[in-house]
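User: Could you check the structure of this?
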Amino acid sequence: MKKPDYGLDAPGLVRGFLFGGPALSAAGWFLSGWAKGKGYGPLIGFGAAMFYTGIVFFLESLLMMASSYYGKFRARDGLLDSLHLRGDETVLDVGCGHGLLLIGAAKRLPRGRSLGIDLWSQVDQGNNSREATIRNARLEGVSDRVEVRDGDMRKLPFPDASVDAVVANLAIHNISSREGRRQAISEIVRVLKPGGQIALMDFKHVGQYAEDLKGYGMGDARASRPTFWIFPPVRVARGRKD
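Assistant: Sure, the predicted structure tokens are below.
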């Protein structure tokens, strides 16, 4: 039986660290040995720095792979558990990628539906496409209650107050400008129903997300402590619409 594929996160970076780390360590090892034989003190230290930096890169690649293939599923389950869904809501996943949160939410919505939107960048996930996400939904048995759209989170194609919860995982940080991220938060708040919840998981800018949620009138807006199931460690910005 075919299995769903939720992708290797940041594949280019992982492969660079996985193969480049050992190469850098080897180069540092040989440079230090050569410099020691020649009595070139500064180059000995430089080679040692290369050696240990390569080891760090290699270890980081292993942590990132563990995050992609195991840890992010634990982080996803914790985030979705915290929403305490009844099962009849509409949940929106912004920057849904292969559908990690989108499909995880759909499994908890036997009488509801799960919406996803993405621009399908290949930087954060390899083979990132609408078709790949729909395939995962079909393999997970939830395609009847999943809807996936092409679009930008800074201009969501949904009516005001139309969803019960909005989630995101490692998505909003891809907007490079502070104003662009603020615009995305504004759109997320706009489409949320009164009483609805927001949970945005990311490894940077999370304090800004919480600040913007509060600025747009979200009650109890806050950023969580780090969770280490994902590498680099992530936090979650939360809020509830009054």
